[in-house]
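Notes from hallway chat w/ T.B., transcribed later so I don't forget. T.B. wanted the structure written out for a chain they're using in a teaching module, and asked if we could keep both sequence and structure tokens in one place. Agreed to drop them here.
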Amino acid sequence: MPFPQPGIFALGTPAHSYLEFDLVATDGAGQGPTTARISEALAAAARLGAMASTMGGVNVVVGFRPELLAAARHSLVPAALTGFAQPVVGDDGFTMPATQHDIAVWVAGGAGDVVFDAATDATRALAAYATLAEETTGWGYHRDLDLTGFTDGTENPELSSAPSLVLVPEGEPGAAGSVLLLQRWPHDAAAWTALGDADQAQVIGRTKDTNEELAPRPETSHVARTDQETFGHILRRNTAFGSVREHGTVFVGFAATQAPLADMLASMAGTQGRPRDALTRFSHPETGAYYFVPSLDTLIDLAGPVAD
């Protein structure tokens, strides 16, 4: 039975670095990388996760653009899984941009210094094959709060059941892997803090102090627009990012298939006559990419033998 990348489920890590890379062209004419070059890049990235040491003080999770991994070996990727190729546009024009890259590396640890060192090492290890296109530093906020002041991840499954819900089942292509949606959502902090707690609760769909779901639940609330009983189970590993001047949420969502993630985004944007998520009036995504996070066994296989 294949084993998942352990960092997906590793909690208690307040420091985070999210790195997204684009493969480099093979020559000055801008020609795309050759098949052999892609294999070398996949191996270099896979080694980051496969060779991570428990003594390093960090967890390293590695994901790939689905089409890139499928080109190397079709059986490694679930059928019909694609990258974030097109923006999600709501009926009123609200847009979630598509900023797909080729490789994602998520480093998480107990302190910023070890995460910084590991992220720097990862960037150097991939330098011959890929350029760093997007970088976000994340951090935990009061254990499980979002910067809105509300609890984040209330609907997350328990750790005992999470693997069975968000990993590709055994026997299917990509078994023990997971689909990752990675987005950065800056907040309009001034507009949000201008609301009172009662109005904020209407936006979220829960109370701030007790985290109880409102009854009746506003149809435009974030809870209603992302209800996992409707769309399917996901595991949220969100963190805060930014500084006093600009800050927000890094959305880090895992699922066994792309459908619950994609359907939630469409629901939030307000497509097909549905109401738009009220939270998108106070926060907007500026990045959006899907990656497939293969099993640890697959990483070891892709990494190949390492010279002594």
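Follow-up for T.B.: The first strand starts at residue 15 and ends at 23. Might be a good example for the class.
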